[in-house]
Amino acid sequence: MQKHEHHLFLVWLIFTGTVSFLLVLAWQQDVLYLLYTTDRSKISVAISLLYIFVTIHCAMRVFNISSQINDSRKVESMIINEKNLKLVVSENKVKIDNETFLPDCLVTDYIHDLISKTNAERENPDARNTGSDHIEYYESKLKSPHEIGWFTADIMIKMGLLGTIVGFILMLGSVSNLRDFDVTTMQKILSYMSSGMGTALYTTLAGLVCSMLAATQYQMLDRSSDDLIDSIRHLTRVYVLPRLS
């Protein structure tokens, strides 16, 4: 069953809208205020800024991949419905008949390369490549921008763990200089220990939550990229390559 043409964008929008609603709810309940004021290391602020960066990057990637998916479906429809299909390269663009050009997109670039490769092999049979299909180049081109997102998600977890260490250092530091055991001193020590424990727990919470949310977004992008590559591979093998052979 074919997905809606804006499936990726709609799924990402629902996900982002849900996260935004929960953030507003957390702000109204003073959960975010408690998080940022309790964290003496301010690592949770850095994690939040990283998550905002990741979300903006995901939004741009969603727009790009969604546009590529929609364009690939247009190309597929044009090729399948063309009765007198004749794929040629003209003016560095791909034509399917005497007048119609394919829209500029990833699948068109791939078809352009296939046509050029086939023409070169006809002129020089010794240069025929029996290796793997060069679709891997386009797959890498499509998915390589996501590596920064996966790296950032991993960094968020490590920053959360770093905050845990900092929190325990703050907590134990208040005990190391203990000299008197009067009530006032013990109250201060308990206050410092509570602050250090809060730093440890809240930074860990921020790191884990933001990392999971970021990973979910990039999983959506990778999955949609795989679907796009599979559709390109199917289109070219079933409808394009037989016309070029």
Q: What does this 3D model show about the protein?
A:
With 245 residues, the protein is mostly helical. The chain has one domain. The protein is built from 7 helices and 2 strands. The protein has helices at 7-28, 31-38, 43-81, 106-123, 135-143, 147-176, 183-244, and strands at 88-90, 93-95. It has a two-stranded antiparallel ribbon with strand order 1-2. It is elongated and about 95 Å long. The relative contact order is 0.16. The mean pLDDT is 86.
Concise summary:
This protein is 77% helix and 2% strand.
Strand fraction:
under 5%
Query: What percent of residues adopt helix (DSSP H or I)?
Result: over 70%
How many structural domains in the coordinates? Answer: 1
**General shape:** elongated
Estimated radius of gyration: 27 Å
Major beta sheet summary: 2 strands, antiparallel
Distance separating the two termini: 30 Å
Treating each run of at least 4 consecutive H or I residues as one helix, how many helices? 7
Sheet with the most strands: spatial strand order: 1-2
Element string (H = helix, E = strand): HHHEEHHHH
The computed structural class is mainly alpha
Give a count of the beta strands, DSSP E runs of length 2 or more: 2
Overall pLDDT level: 86
Low-pLDDT stretches: none
